Amino acid sequence: MNSNYIHLQHQSPLAQVTVLRMSNRSMVNYNYLVVDPISRKAVIVDPAWQIDKIDQALVKAGASLSGVLITHSHQDHIHLAKPLASKYKCPIWMSENEIAISNFSDKQLIPIDETPWSVGQLLIQPILTPGHTPGCICYLIGDNLFTGDVLFAEGCGLCSDTHAAYDMYTSLEKLKNRLAPHTQIFPGHSYGRSPGQQFSRLLRENMYLQFTTRETFAAFRLRSGQDRVKMFNFQ
Ligand SMILES: [Fe+2]
Q: Residue 14's domain spans which residues?
């Protein structure tokens, strides 16, 4: 895996996505800076671990930070939300449900549902996708979907019990119905494949998108003997 902090850039007419690989000891998270090429306003998805890299990416992009998008409240996805909101005087967006279950609070926190809004020319479309947590949300911006721990290139997020796994199945079905095949998927973690894979490839190759009933999906997602380090090395 390339260890450079900016190792690829994806561009569409509506959004420029810079991938930031963030690490803290053995943990690695992917953060995404999404820039409107017209206004140079930017949002960051799930910021964690290395604020200097975000500052540098903003300077390099000639952009100003206009908000923090949070997919869910786990520490490795919210670590830099408050420091960035304070430093750049911008809002933090998180789903109402996730706020309710996490007790996350900040004076700049804005609870959201699935109502879209705009930052400059960027249209941000939230898609509620519970399962990994009850308030997980994905963000569709142009042809880019930011999935946190809902959908990875190689699999999907952990589920705590059968009810959560049923929710995850429904959320993945929702994404199948909603997304265009060429949508680029930007997850919070990589288990071998680079961020930005097309959804059409995941539909072919991601085992967790192959199930046709919630019961068979849940049995597979909750199977015993899973190795958290080699989480998706089952093929
Ligand atoms: Fe998580």
A: 6-221
